[in-house]
Design brief:
By secondary structure, the chain is mainly alpha-helical. Helices cover 67% and strands 0% of the residues. The two termini are 37 Å apart.
Amino acid sequence: MDARTAELLLSPPILALLGLCIGSFLNVVIHRLPQMLERGWKLDSAEMLGVKIAEPPAVTLSTPRSRCPSCGHRIAWHENIPVLSYLRLAGKCSACKTRISPRYPFIEILTGALFAATAWRFGAEPTTLLWCGFVAVLVALAGIDWDTTLLPDNLTLPLLWAGLVASALGWTIPLSSALWGAVAGYLSLWSVYWIFKKATGKEGMGYGDFKLLAALGAWLGVQMILPIVLAASVLGAAVGIVMKMTGALREGRYVPFGPFLAGAGIVVMLAGPARVLGWLGWA
């Protein structure tokens, strides 16, 4: 691929279009991956306990075909074009006119915008696609955690290993920074978890948060761990307070930390280490 072709294919507009399509797929991942995991857990538990249960319906990322949850209408290809189909249908099912959640086009637009921003940040380089993959996984994790308070190992662990491998191949940051970033990311939240649990007898976060921060450390380096945690904590606290004041956060429930870790990681990636350290006065 010559430089001109690479510059065109990896330009912000082209990657924005790619992001819209990837965002449509991420909607499927966010919705179905927890169902797939729950089905596997039920079957594994029944096997270990030696009991028979009615086997839950098989669900994968590709089957069954997407349908309207209200009337069962099978969604045709022309009703599944990112953003445009939502606008054409006026946000309603074509069969029963039930409202379609605006979160579907939101995820598509968000992913498209982040892909374009990634192209602007890294330029027409092959590693730009690598960072787009990093962004896509974080968007999926944020959506799943917000819905279920679950950060699946199926996504966090491959993200962690991909960060270390990319570093070892010289595609991202020095391997020493990636390795210690993963270690510091995991141990920092692991320590907070146990200190909080010993002090209050309650669990303040899940193990998925440790793994997600370890993955962010593997991609962004050990110096970025503290800025990510600070940004995620401030944003999470602000959102939690607003939700509490508006009644959106019921008593006994909590705001998952994963979406804010993911968001902070994306902000740090787009800003770059030098700028982030400059904001904190650590440059």
